[in-house]
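task queued by scheduler; priority normal; single chain, no ligands, no partner chains; default sampling; output format set to structure tokens
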Amino acid sequence: MSDNEISLTATALLQHYRAKTLSPVEVTKAVLARMRQLQPSLNAFLLIDEEAALAAARASEARWIKGTPAGLVDGVPTSVKDVMIAQGWPTLRGSKSVPRDQPWNEDAPMVARLREAGAVLLGKTTTPEFGWKAIGDSPLTGITRNPWDRQRTPGGSSAGAAVAAATGMGPLHLGSDGGGSIRIPSSFTGVFGIKPTFGLVASSPPSPFAVVSHTGPMTRTVEDAALMLTAIAAWDARDPYALPFPKREYRAPLDGGIKGLKCAYSPTLGYAKVDPEVHRLVETAVRTLEGMGARIEAADPGFASPRDAFWTLWTAGCAKIVAGMSPAQRAELDPGFALAAARGARLSAVDLIAAEVERAHLMQKTNAFLARYDVLLTPTVAVPALPVGQDLNDPNTEEIWIDWTPFSYPFNMSRQPAANIPCGFTASGLPVGLQAVAALDRDALVLRLARAYETAHPFAMPAID
């Protein structure tokens, strides 16, 4: 297969399988070869299981020959973020503290749905320790690098998934997002990623970060994300927060256009500091959407920065993870994670309830705002990708990573669907993203707007070397 064929979308691969012009086996072999080529320099995977992937590809090929594919993504190479359990593979969560000698005999709900639909599971992608921060490094796997500039981070916590998507190491990638962990690395690497409505994609076991953690697709195209969301959006009894919605088809409404959509544009949410190049590129993208028929109004959603409330909820989750660890395990933790956990351990029950009350008020404000507007448009991240090994963009004005990600975590707190739409490059060639947010259960609308922009400005991918 040529480089162009290896980088085919899931949608295109399925067309080839149907026409018998490509087979899942040859596609999987080619993707595995690319992974072997790029893994040493990019470090996107914690685990690559070539034997299992090829066995799944051979089974898929047999089904396609018979004309009986198992499901929507039969034969499509797919990765799983290493915070999600997958049968037969250790789930180490980017940490040396997780024991490997466990049964590993269960699939998380979204992994199970992909396996049932015939996906060829390639392996586990890298994440910072327990997905706690927006940078792509961990004590277990070291540094994951951005394919646009290997001296830059791809962001996190779905770091390896973003890099794999951008470089054609499979078309479909599972990410999770508790404070921006799908959208931030999607923005930094120039891929499409959507954090669906909370509970739309079932997850288990429950995240220590509780009701701010979402699961969703990371892909090179909007159509592939819609395909993947259609496959994984399903109720599962193991998830106490899963929404009991009937199955939906997210591809059908994609090309409905955006003429007449009422969109709010908030370049700062009323309080954020934004890099000038990011501001310019996002503003240009918003004007492009306006030229395509969207009705754009400048409007902030009306809430104050929820930084402190989010950090309370987040560090409480970190403390919960660390609570049962031995001194030897704690000694091997990411120092920043250990500090966050120590902060969380000092919180009181009143602190947590106060943060939950603030989250409830934020939900009320965003619900009311998105009853007046179809979509809210903002930058995805306030800055371009940071240098590797650097947790803060501006240490003089920032204390923690959420200080340079002010646009993502509010919508984890409010539970709405939110997506990163690649919208251009800085002068130094780093991708920038536009964020689109819609009301609860309007995921299809977010996808439709993203598809409209992608049609006008197809997303560019980095050179493979």
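post-processing summary
- The chain has a mean pLDDT of 97.
- The chain has one domain: 3-456.
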